[in-house]
Amino acid sequence: MRLVGDNINEPGVYSTREALQITDELGLDLIEISPKADPPVCKADDYQKFLYQQKKKQKQMKANTVKMVVKEVRFGPNTDDHDYNFKLNHAKKFLQDGAKVKAFVFFKGRSILFKEQGEILLLRLAQDLEEYGKVDQLPKLEGKRMIMFFSPKVSSKNKK
Length: 160
Fold this sequence. Notes:
4-stranded mixed sheet; 4 helices; alpha/beta; rod-shaped; single chain; Ubiquitin-like (UB roll); Translation Initiation Factor IF3; 8 strands
């Protein structure tokens, strides 16, 4: 196995017994880093310190991931212009803030007969939000809801 580490005088290829003897003399642990390498790579280090550093790296990677927020905007099939404009402004603000928008028309009872009106409403919304975001999914009927997804357009303002 290949032995590496900060405290090793001569890193190189050793037998398992020699590597264990060297780490014992230094008062360290033998940690297998890459078992599939040829020869396998082991590190002479303190095992608790190694675990601590691994956890620290994972925590840092988790903190650096981008969390995508999905905001919902709900319409009825017969939403009038004032309500539509009010919800349109909310959707614009969500997209400008960098959140995804899930717009849906909810059909209650017999209003499912107005599927075409719901689809027209969502397509109108897509047209009005064209400069703020792009359509991820065209209107799709799922049960009593017709759903459409938007994601924000990436501009120099939204980049960080």
